[in-house]
Amino acid sequence: MIFMGTKKYPEENEFSQFITQNGGNFSAYTALDHTNYYCSAKTDSFEPLLDRFSRLFYEPLFTVSAAKREINSVNAEHENNKTNDSMRLTQLKRNMADPAHPFNMFPTGTKQTLCNIQIENGDHFCDKLLEYHSNWYSSNLMYLAVLGKADLDTLENMVSSFFMHIERKDILLQEWTDPIYKEEQLATKTIVVPVEDSKQLYINFLIKDQGPHYKSMPVAYLNSILCHKGPMSISVLLSNKGWSSGISAGKIFEARGIEYYEINMDLTELGLDYVDEIIKLIFKYVNMLKREGPQEWFYLEYKYINEMEFQYKDKEASLSYVFMLTPRMIRYKLEDVLTAGNLLEEWKPDLITELLSYFRPDNMRVTVVSKTFQNQTNAEDKYYGTLFKVSKIPVETINYWLEVDDLDDFKMPQKNRYITNNFSLVTFNDSLEFDTPRLCYNTSFLKCWLKKDTRFRLPKVYISIDFFSPIVVNDPFKCNIVDIFVRLFNQDFSSRLYDASSARLQFQIKSKIYGFSILLSGFNLKIHKLLKRVLERLMTINFSSQQIESIIEQKIRQLNNTEMEQPYNCAIRYNDVILTDAALSPSQLLMSISEINKDILQDFMKKFFSNMFMESLIYGNLDKRWAWIFVHELKRPFINIEFRQLLQQEMIRPREVKISDGENTFYEITTKLHSSSCVFVNLQCGIQNTKDNTVVGLFSQIIEDSCHNILRTQEQLGYVVMCVSYKSNGVLYFGIIVQSDHSPMFIHERIEHYLSTVESILNNLTDEEFLKNKESLSVKIVENPMGMMAQAATYWSEITNQHYNFNRGEIEKKMLTSITKKDILKFYYQKINVAGPKRHMLSVYVRSIMNKNPEEYSHCSDSSTSNNLFIPSNIQKIIDIDDFKRSHQLYPAPRRYLTHDEYSAHKFNCCAKCNIL
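Above: the chain sequence. Below: its structure as tokens.
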């Protein structure tokens, strides 16, 4: 409601429209003890932004009509959250707190809980909003962070002039120091039935608020030990026993004065039967830590790593950085706001010892989550319908946990040999200095791009490698094999090289529908050693049948859980399955996964590595010597492999299914777990090129605010309303996604009705408004990546998409200046309007069978006609996805190889020693 009008700017969507037209973003979140509002705009609009933003806090309108609609939005958000297991478990934590403690409450709201305010009190709801605002929006409780290009004095004067009108009421900042759980709520075990097929164990210990100890961070010390994945750690032992596939630990901060420590792990089918034994091992590990006592060498090592990371921290997005600072201003002294939580200044072993003293059964709550508890519960949460049962932990079990056993199973982590102490930067003025990545190595199995960082000047390197093989594409059985191999490799390697990740050398491996990709990043001095170990292990790794069976069990659960995802996520997923020729549905993957065993996996991966092509990017702090080292490490493991040189036609990546001119289709699936339905109306806009990219982007920019305002705010269709434009496999798309309690047919009709009004929106657009939208899009197009990681991702996107247009932003910005309103109208009439001759529409309907809506589903049958005024009369239903794909042509794939001229422009000479071109 805060964003929906002020006395000076009374229009409901004035603030959002201003943000949209000035290349910015805005949002807010509500925590238990504070609310955080944040926004951004282009630099020359900064003063009018501050004017609008400041007024939200001293002259908001809270109109009656808007309040009624926003109650519906809050209710819709709650309905969407009903199947979210995280929200359900969080609510149970609150329900089980001391009934007299304010933590025991329902924090989000429904139509019923909000409307009861005016029913019970006889007051209008808006009066309650104004009363709340008047009571709590006091300047002494408010914290502001501003980032701009002006000098600090100028920024300070600007802020003072706009925010000085907020009244100071001298309200005390609240803090809740009483424990949220008392004796009767502790030493308990709760079993919970989840929505998704997951098996989780949560162990909570009440601790004191750790906020005052931010300079010594005893919790961070404990986290780094409990989550360690080195030899003789709790994580490795549980994995070796086949009880758990992952563990995490850390403090949970709920509100000022309210904290608890939580250990969470994913359980296997076997692990579910050994919960008491797992908890016993955790207490043994804690006893080992108590016996060894706090280790100063470990603290100093952790302190050094944090200092190293902070000193050479990558830049991040300005808006996210600013909104992160304001809650820190509440918790920390002002002079420590930028460094708190990053830099350790004090070694206080007594605080670590005190923290370990809280790890006791009488100070603990255990929660076990599994669908196997379906018939063992005796209670149901009134807000989310979660089935659960709470019971006191038997004395015998507590005594079993407290037995002092042999502690030789566990040891403290060893010293980290991956920590670097050389952060020197390579010199400038060598042959590697060029504006964009250059092709430096090109053989039948490896293509390598290099780019020296000349902008951020950090001692880091980013290495991305794509492993592509045509024998995987379009085969669900082989896709499953590769994905299982990737999961197994990740599990194995994360424990083997945990020290590397602790020293901020990051490793990531992801499966793709054509193979997999590897990303390495971190300080360049030792990253080549990590690269060497990754590739060597890739070629020599072996897995046991038990490991494979465990990963298959995990993947089957995840595939089955896709049925429980939010309807809008389901719509996006099936849109991709229908329009991408090589995309596979969860059901297709499930059909073949059980046939995989150890022999099949090993045999297939041998074939994969002899029938593949690698493409890589190396970007960062490198010179000729480092370039040679990295390329050498990339080649070396594959030198003795007999590669079959792939044919050019085998190198084609996934392509998009081409919808015909004037064709309108829809595909419908049902959900039985969600009360909301969803429609994704997606319009295919042709092969991407510089002009069409900017036209589609500008069209989306112009209508984005009106789309959200009309479909969500005015018509109240639902909480989830998205206007999207994107590219997939070289093809442009524009779409609208709405998740709602209405039927899919009604939702689709309202989307089409809105699209019909876009004609008048475009025709009534003034030249000034059109120019503002162009300027806003220009800011987004050429917005330089904020850090090295973002820059590497931008380069890598061009390589994996096989476009190699590394100057895309500048090129499209230049094109944008020539785009006219006539171009936008032509695009609308041809490709967006329901009667457009080049309209290519796919709509995905996700229909809730829980919501018995009286609206007709007349065109959801096989009939090709519709009586609705706005829905296309020629709409056809897709009965079988495979038949639909077979009956349609594919768009041409992006070129796998550069033309001679492009290749010449990209290549460079490095040195004869490494045979680089």
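Residues 249 and 263 are 4 Å apart (CA to CA).
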